[in-house]
Design brief:
heterodimer, A: mainly beta, 7-stranded mixed sheet, 4-stranded antiparallel sheet, B: mainly beta, 12 strands
């Protein structure tokens, strides 16, 4: 195991409510990533971080924000959840820049009603 | 832009059959190529990788060879087991695209006894 936990593992919420997902690592890796997994799309990058307080957008960043105040934690926030954000969210970490291997957490299944 | 295309599933095989899952890629730089496996309810696990042309990645009986001339990285296993039932993702990471991984849409494999 790569020492990555995600919380919560499952969440059901209502449209319009804020939601925060947490990724925690024990590896002290510099790079952390948030992906969403949807049928027919594989995994798509939402945001990533290359250090404390350093973040950047990925392919599907609209409607999401992130924060990283400590090396070990990377938070993903849906400011006002929509049904299109129903998905499985995965956190990943890597020691170095791509093409370094990315290691994935167990995922969070989010349902927005 | 960079992309990965892998064969559509689902794939159903009998135990001890030969497996091939096709993967082709488009990249602007010098990509590294990966196969990840996802078991039900879990995150993605690295299966194997290759970082330059003609490299062969191998693990747990699975193999894939980085073919630059055909831009391919097909996954093979000589004799599948029931425990190989999972979803397999091909991915690339390109030196020209910073930290981003590009994933295929996944191929579901079911192995029946």
């Amino acid at each position: 195991d790569a020492g990555i936990t995600q919380s919560p593992r499952h969440k059901v919420t209502e449209t319009g409510t804020p939601v925060t997902l947490r990724c925690h690592q024990t590896e002290n890796h510099r790079y952390m990533y948030w992906y969403r997994q949807d049928p027919g799309h594989g995994l798509r990058l939402i945001h990533y971080s290359y250090g404390v307080k350093d973040t950047d957008k990925g392919e599907v960043s609209d409607g999401y924000s992130v924060s990283r105040s400590k090396t070990e934690d990377f938070l993903l926030t849906l400011e006002s959840a929509t049904s299109s954000q129903t998905s499985v969210y995965f956190c990943a970490i890597s020691e170095g820049l791509a093409p370094d291997t990315q290691y994935f957490g167990p995922g969070t299944r989010l349902t927005v009603l | 832009g960079d992309s990965v295309t892998q064969m559509e599933g689902p794939v159903t095989l009998s135990e001890e059959a030969f497996l091939t899952i096709n993967c082709t890629y488009t990249a602007t730089g010098y990509p590294s190529l990966f196969w990840y496996v996802q078991y039900p309810g879990e995150g993605l696990q690295l299966l194997l990788k290759a970082t330059k042309a003609d490299d062969k990645g191998s693990n747990k009986g699975f193999e894939a060879t980085y073919r630059k001339e055909t831009t391919s990285f097909h996954l093979e296993k000589g004799s599948v087991q029931v425990s190989d039932s999972a979803v397999y993702f091909c991915a690339l990471s390109d030196t020209n695209t910073g930290n981003q991984f590009y994933f295929g849409t996944g191929t579901s494999l079911t192995v029946i006894p």
